[in-house]
Design a protein that fits this description.
The structure is a single chain. This protein is mainly alpha-helical. The chain has a single domain, classed as Up-down Bundle (Amino acid/polyamine transporter I), CATH 1.20.1740.10. The radius of gyration is 21 Å and the shape is globular. About 50% of the residues are buried.
Amino acid sequence: MQNLTRFPARFRRSVSEYRFYAYLAVLGPGIIAASAGNEASGIATYSSAGAEYGYTLLWAFIPMTICFIVAQEMCVRMGVVTGQGLADLIREQFGVRWTALVMLALLIANTGIIIAEFVGIAQASELFGISRYITIPLTAIVVWWLVVKGTPKRVEQVFLLMSLIFLTYIASAFLAKPDWERVGIEFVTPSFSFETGYLFTIVALIGTTITPFMQVFVQSSVVEKGMDKEDYPMARADAIIGVIFANLIAFFIVVSTAATLHSQGIKLEDAADAAQALAPVVGEYAKYLFAVGLFGASMLAMGVLPLATAYSLSEAMGVEKGLTHSFREAPIFLGIFTTLIVIGAIVALIPGIPQIRLLIFTQSINGLLLPVILVAIVLLSNNREIMGDYKNSFLFNCLAWIITIVVSLLSLLLIGKTIIDIF
């Protein structure tokens, strides 16, 4: 682009305003997809990391952010260049059998996480003294009505507003009054321990940060918005900002629990435990802020996860999909979404549902699926036939393969540890 300093200030202002409004027009998919990853199980993982290891794992957010950006960027790029979702491309390039296997794993994993999100809704509401038998049916109806009866633009606006609820975790961190100098030192100074729990907490953090449904959702959302190659710079910026925002929130969750719970040696089993444990240390306000964040996180994921699953399964089957369609036009797409909402709500209402075991099981499925998804993403984004000049550059390709191999090995390592713990 030409140097704008040669033009009058008024013209430069107009160009800057145009760029700002152009970004607002494409804003959404990247931020929503990344934020949805900070759901109930993610909050539980980040809280446990802070409570058990204090600030010593903060450095891990630097490589995790880089890995996350690379994965999201490739999916956004494929979406704007090909105009197809990830499952669409997997079916076309790798065949029906591989697609069926991947989609089955995605369906099982996402269904488990959806149930966990409803449990998260229940836990958050019960912290305010409201019964789950009221909040779960009510929130299920609200999310279903928003997605099925609302317009794509309205759905995206509501999801973006839900993302803002995550700011409560920043407030919780400041209320906890951490040692900010220590936070800064630990953030830029990697520390290693060969203690089993420490290593697998790092693996769990990576697995929580990068999950398959995010890649599926962000690419399908880009296609749904009708973005093309001209929108690529803005869509890429949206994806990068989304990753930074989501990981910043996760960072503050670790900081808040590290500052308050680590010194007491409190062990956490879920996100609600973190909210309860914060109260005696920094007061009821922090507890309620944490609970509001948990509620908003679960609500956002409760909408995004069924949508991502419906998109992927519909793409794999080659049927109509999208929020612009009615039930008559896209019965399978909206039917899958509705069924997942109903199943999640009903199962979460069962007394004594074992959330932790459920999360371990779904995390294991995601751990097995993640290497397959990452390999497919790298192969597809490096395919000149479908990507043309937008294929991965040599250096980007090297980085992508290194990340894919490392994350895949760590995911498989976590699966192995989970199986050993079971037996």
